[in-house]
Q: What sequence folds into this?
């Protein structure tokens, strides 16, 4: 996926979070967004994910030569963030079935098991994910993001709450999805930045 | 699109069946409201048309206490963003509309059943028309309140705001619905009830269309 | 600057004209009341055709003269005594009733010289008809302000310009003010004319609904902290509320009897302004007041906008 952001700005209550941010992410790239706390990394990532409307500027998405319309953007994006809450009254597998169904994808028990195994979650737990530890929840968010094999993966502090095995899984996914499309990571972590081909720094306005 | 909307609906239904967040409280709400009415009216003889008014009052307040649930729950649990990432706004709106419709229809059937059971004076002369009006009323209530629920889910004082915002929008529906129900309860004159049915029908179409067109602005930040 | 002074004098002048101008009936009104309520004294205006003579004993005494009304109808008028300014007066405004025995107009009291400018006597409203110059412009402004608010709301949704949201809210604020004024004046008036403050006639119901919508609009606005979200949601709400208006138009006249002119069961069916009784003079004053209120509204909007800009600049320089 090719992403081109042009002079993006965002204001909350007329206070500018950031102004005139422009960048391009080429297919096959891992792109890093860095910046101090409160600089608007997450805000920018949400804008790229189509979850927030920018106050100014425009983002264009292209799959090959085909432009992606904002209405269908959610199909091409996988998003991981600490502030993303999953449906905690359901079990891990029920969550997977639910995502697949809402996305209109076929789903099998074996695929769900494979996904859970991939992120290192127990495959046979039937209890709601409410009871999961924060690290397990973070792994579940990875499942949420990669289930539909999106061409653009957006990761906001992806290794938060994860142990070294978890980090390895995240970087494995980053490596796979850069070949499959593109990855954008919003982070300040040195290990994360080491994964990136290029980075930009967002500065608070 | 329809399949995705149905999936959103199934998700809400499964979630509700698992948590029983709304339904238990709603059923109790109806029972309590009816009990209050019965205590307040103990020994009074009321005409069926007066009881029709009561019926709609109970229906209105039951809807007001329950129908904001589907959106407010997403907001409170913090899953709004998850749903935004999963489905298109259209699918979300249709799914929630369907869920609200099922909820309000079930609620209204329960209310009417209780009414017929405990209010001896409540006699309906034409059940076919009566249920038709109830169906249209439920459709109308669901279509008008779904978008308002989506609006108030984003505000601070969700619970109190819901009836405040809903009442002016629901008023034409309530007026036509009450009138049509009274006609169905008294005796059927199709020529008398026809304008109300037309109005209920066009209200549903107009409000659903307008909500559908505006939902994007409410749903996306 | 000059137009503000003009606006002030415009509204003041037409308010004064509206209040001071006497209500005067003609011979048609007198004839009508002879059948409805023969004892009632009505204001009647006429010009002198013939200065007349002293009436005989059989005729009940006093002074008899011939007068002509604004529709060129003539009748005999009997005064209890010879009018003091009989020789000079060209006509009088009198309080009178029809005398069916002698088929003449019985003058109870001379109110003054015949005014050049008067409003017609509308049965059932009389002097109270003058509320139309204040109440109707307020009611119109309530609706216009709502439409303007919605229009800016739609513009906000399209262009995401926060100024449009401010205009939308400012217009809604003015609309709420006019709504409260219109409701209060109407309600007070209804007490005197219809006997109670509130009657749930269709127009009263619709202004009540509008009041609720305005209330809900501001309740919603105050409950959302993020300005952009507040702007979008309140715009959406005002559009939804507006979408229900046509249903009220259809449903209310069928369910409720109307008291206002122009209601479905009114014999003078039609919009308020074309309903019977208003003449050109009244209509002129009403339209002038409407124009005045419209400009006043525009002025208040521009004041609010300027105030808003100043506040913004202050906030910016403070930050």
A:
């Amino acid at each position: 996926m090719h992403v081109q952001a042009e002079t993006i700005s965002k204001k909350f209550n007329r206070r500018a979070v950031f102004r005139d941010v422009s960048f391009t992410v080429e297919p096959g790239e891992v792109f890093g967004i860095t910046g101090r706390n409160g600089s608007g990394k997450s805000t920018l990532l949400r804008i790229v994910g189509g979850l927030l409307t920018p106050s100014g500027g425009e983002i264009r998405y292209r799959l090959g030569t085909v432009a992606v319309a904002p209405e269908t953007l959610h199909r091409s994006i996988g998003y991981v963030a600490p502030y993303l809450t999953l449906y905690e009254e359901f079990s891990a597998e029920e969550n997977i079935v639910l995502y697949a169904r809402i996305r209109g994808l076929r789903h099998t028990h074996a695929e769900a098991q494979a996904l859970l195994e991939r992120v290192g979650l127990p495959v046979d737990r039937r209890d709601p994910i409410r009871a999961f530890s924060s690290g397990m929840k973070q792994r579940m968010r990875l499942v949420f993001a990669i289930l539909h094999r999106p061409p653009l993966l957006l990761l906001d502090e992806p290794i938060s709450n994860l142990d070294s095995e978890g980090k390895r899984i995240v970087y494995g996914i980053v490596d796979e999805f850069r070949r499959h499309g593109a990855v954008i990571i919003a982070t300040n972590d040195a290990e994360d930045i080491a994964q990136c081909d290029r980075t930009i720094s967002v500065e608070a306005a | 699109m329809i399949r995705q909307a149905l999936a959103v609906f199934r998700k809400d239904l499964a979630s509700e069946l698992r948590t029983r967040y709304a339904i238990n409280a709603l059923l109790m709400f109806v029972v309590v409201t009816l009990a209050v009415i019965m205590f307040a009216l103990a020994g009074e003889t009321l005409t069926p048309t007066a009881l029709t008014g009561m019926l709609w009052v109970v229906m209105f307040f039951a809807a007001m206490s329950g129908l904001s649930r589907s959106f407010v729950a997403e907001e409170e649990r913090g899953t709004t963003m998850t749903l935004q990432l999963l489905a298109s706004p259209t699918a979300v709106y249709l799914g929630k509309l369907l869920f609200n419709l099922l909820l309000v229809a079930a609620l209204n059937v329960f209310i009417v059943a209780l009414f017929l059971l405990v209010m001896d004076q409540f006699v309906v002369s034409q059940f076919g028309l009566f249920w038709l009006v109830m169906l249209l009323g439920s459709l109308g209530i669901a279509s008008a309140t779904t978008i308002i629920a989506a609006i108030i889910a984003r505000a601070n004082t969700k619970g109190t705001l819901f009836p405040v915002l809903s009442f002016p929008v629901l008023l034409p529906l309530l007026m036509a619905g009450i009138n049509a129900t009274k006609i169905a309860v008294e005796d059927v004159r199709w020529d008398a009830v026809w304008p109300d049915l037309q109005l209920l029908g066009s209200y549903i179409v107009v409000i659903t269309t307008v909500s559908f067109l505006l939902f994007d602005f409410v749903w996306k930040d | 600057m000059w137009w503000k002074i003009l606006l002030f004098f415009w509204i003041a002048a037409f308010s004064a004209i509206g209040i001071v101008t006497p209500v005067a009936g003609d011979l048609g009104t007198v004839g009508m009341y002879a059948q409805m309520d023969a004892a009632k004294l009505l204001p009647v205006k006429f010009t002198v055709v013939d200065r007349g003579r002293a009436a005989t004993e059989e005729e009940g005494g006093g002074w008899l003269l011939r007068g002509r009304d604004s529709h060129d109808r003539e009748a005999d008028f009997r005064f209890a005594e010879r009018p003091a300014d009989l020789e000079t007066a060209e006509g009088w405004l009198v309080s009178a009733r029809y005398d069916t025995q002698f088929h003449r107009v019985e003058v109870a009291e001379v109110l003054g010289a015949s005014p050049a400018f008067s409003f017609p006597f509308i049965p059932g409203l009389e002097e109270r008809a003058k509320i139309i110059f204040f109440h109707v412009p307020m009611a119109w402004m309530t609706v216009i302000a709502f439409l303007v608010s919605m229009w800016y709301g739609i513009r906000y949704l399209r262009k995401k310009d926060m100024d449009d949201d401010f205009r939308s809210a400012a217009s809604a604020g003015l609309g709420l003010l006019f709504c409260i004024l219109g409701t209060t004046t109407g309600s007070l008036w209804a007490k005197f004319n219809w006997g109670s403050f509130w009657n749930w006639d269709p127009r009263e119901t619709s202004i009540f609904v509008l009041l609720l919508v305005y209330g809900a609009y501001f309740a919603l606005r105050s409950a959302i902290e993020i300005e952009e979200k507040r702007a979008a949601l309140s715009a959406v709400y005002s559009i939804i509320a507006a979408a229900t208006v046509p249903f009220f138009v259809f449903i209310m006249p069928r369910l409720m009897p109307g008291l206002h002119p122009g209601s479905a069961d009114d014999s003078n069916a039609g919009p308020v302004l074309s309903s019977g009784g208003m003449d050109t003079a009244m209509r002129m004053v009403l339209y002038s007041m409407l124009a005045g209120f419209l400009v006043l509204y525009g002025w208040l909007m521009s004041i609010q906008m300027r105030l808003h800009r100043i506040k913004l600049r202050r906030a910016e320089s403070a930050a």
Summary: Chain C touches chain B at residues 157, 209, 212-213, 215-216, 219-220, 223-225, 228-229, 232-233, 235-237, 239-241, 243-244, 246-248, 250-252, 254-255 (CB under 8 Å). The radius of gyration of chain C is 26 Å. The longest helix of chain C spans residues 280-318.
